[in-house]
Design a protein that fits this description.
Its cofactor is Mg(2+). The protein is α+β, with helices and mostly antiparallel strands and about 325 residues long. Helix content is about 30%, strand content about 25%. 2,5-anhydro-1,6-di-O-phosphono-D-glucitol binds next to strand 5.
Amino acid sequence: MQLDVFLKQVSLNHALNVLIWHAAQAGIEIAALVKQGALQGTTEKTTNTNVQGETQMHLDIRSHEVVLEQLRASGVVAAVVSEEAEEHISFETVDAPFLVCVDPLDGSSNLAINGVVGSIFSILPNTGVATQGSQAFLQPGQAQRAALYVMYGPATLLVLTLGEGTHVFTLDHENDSFVLTQQTVQIPPETSEYAINASNQRYWQPAVKRYIDECLQGAEGDRGRDFNMRWCASMVMDVHRILTRGGVFLYPRDNKQPVKAGRLRLLYEANPMSLLVAQAGGESIAGLEDVLAIQPASCHQRVPVLLGSKQEIQRLREYHQQAK
Ligand code: AHG
Ligand code: MN
Ligand code: MN
Ligand code: MN
């Protein structure tokens, strides 16, 4: 079943369906750019830095432009927050029903090594950007109407939730259309695989140190079984693995970043991925609290993220409570 047919079946909200269709078109355009690699100069860095102080790749900027073009063309988006723009961008349709927060190209450092990248979208109701400005974006993740990512891997996938289940579509490159290939994904509740950038170990807090120490002890330790480890440095790819075969993904609070809140951004990384994981039967916490319950303070705010298989995240929550 094609994406547009699926949307008509599960959602009566025509404007939302139009928005998702345009996000998918952006994904198809970016997939084509990613595929061209160095032939398009897309693996090169620019001399610009974004609001997080990261050096932008050409494809970070190009993807941002593609996403803006598609979202503007949808006619149902009032304004956008993007990783690659300091201020929010308002469209002429400032009273349209939706706001979008976007990471146009996630994992972009992987471009240089021909690794997997993605695009992440969070769709919020427009509570009045015309009068409130960027304040209108500061809604907890629970308010999201939909979330999706497009993953530019060996196959291009679109993973979507409208708040009722998480579903996977695969791009048919011959017809430029996304086809439903997995409905209602379920993350196994109990698993033995974790993802964390272990080079930050000395900056972690006690609860995360304890959890990872126990995983490393394997069958000889308290957990009584061996654990496996993976880290792709591309949140889309790491989260996709968890949706596919379970496990946990941790970018915890640490003492390394100037803000000491981990690396990932609440509005366009943590919130959409947390909704997708929650709708697949997993959980997502920032430590003691649910990511989706956090009241954002600013558009580019960073937040700790611990997400994945239910039983493991519950264990991590307990460890945080005990370390209080
Ligand atoms: P982005 O490329 O959009 O800035 O995001 C990169 C993020 C995320 O994809 C990944 O999980 C994390 O950064 C990797 O961080 P480290 O380089 O610290 O491992
Ligand atoms: Mn970046
Ligand atoms: Mn990212
Ligand atoms: Mn990015």
